[in-house]
Amino acid sequence: MDLAYISALSALAGSLVGGLTTTGTTWLTQRAQARSGQLAHEFERREDLFRDFIVAASKTYGDALVNSEPQLPELIALHSMISRMRVLAAPRTVASADKVMLTIIDAYFAPNHSVRELRDLIKSGAGIDPLKDFSEAAREEVGTLKLFT
User: Fold this and answer.
1) Does residue 23 belong to any structural domain of this protein?
2) Average of per-residue pLDDT values in the chain
3) How far apart are the C-alpha atoms of 39 and 96, rounded to whole Å?
4) What pLDDT does residue 52 have?
């Protein structure tokens, strides 16, 4: 075999290896960026859902403490958020959200509280924060997601 052929084949092989390496590196980089983008989007979706649930549950719980008539649209909205959590969130977070919902429903059927009684409940810390376990579970879940983004 002629030395010119060997030299040409070596050059072609080197170019082929270099091209494949560049292509593989680009593909892996794009894949990692796409995965990172998906995780960031997933993180935002859960964070938004948890925030919306906390706001809606707080308002509904406050209403339940001073009223005996359940507000069905608010309860249905909370149930809808919990159903979305069943798809997106960890089981502990969903279980905590279910407990919040039951606490709210129970509060509607409990005797109404006056403003003075609410103040005393807040001062004593006796059961006025039904969202504490949910908030902790959500924080833990969001913290775990942050590790992957």
Assistant:
1) no
2) 85
3) 23
4) 95
Angle at 146 between CA 134 and CA 61, to 5 degrees: 20
> To which residue do tokens 């892996």 refer?
28
Considering Cα of 104, then 108, then 113, then 115, what sign does the dihedral take?
positive
Number of domains making up the chain = 1
Check residue 36 and give its pLDDT: 75
Q: Is residue 12 part of a domain?
A: no
For 77, phi then psi, to 5°, come to: -65, -40
* Closest of 87, 82, 17, 26 to residue 53, by C-alpha: 82
Per the structure, the complete domain to which residue 57 belongs is given by 41-148
Could you report the per-residue pLDDT of 39-72, keeping only the tens digit for each? 777 888 889 999 999 999 999 998 898 888 888 9
Kindly give the residue spans of alpha helices, DSSP state H, lying in the chain: 3-66, 72-88, 91-109, 115-124, 132-148
Is 140 a member of any domain?
yes
Q: CA-to-CA distance for 25 and 27, rounded, in angstroms?
A: 5
For residue 73, being part of any structural domain is answered with: yes
Q: Assess contact for 3 and 106: CB atoms under 8 A.
A: no
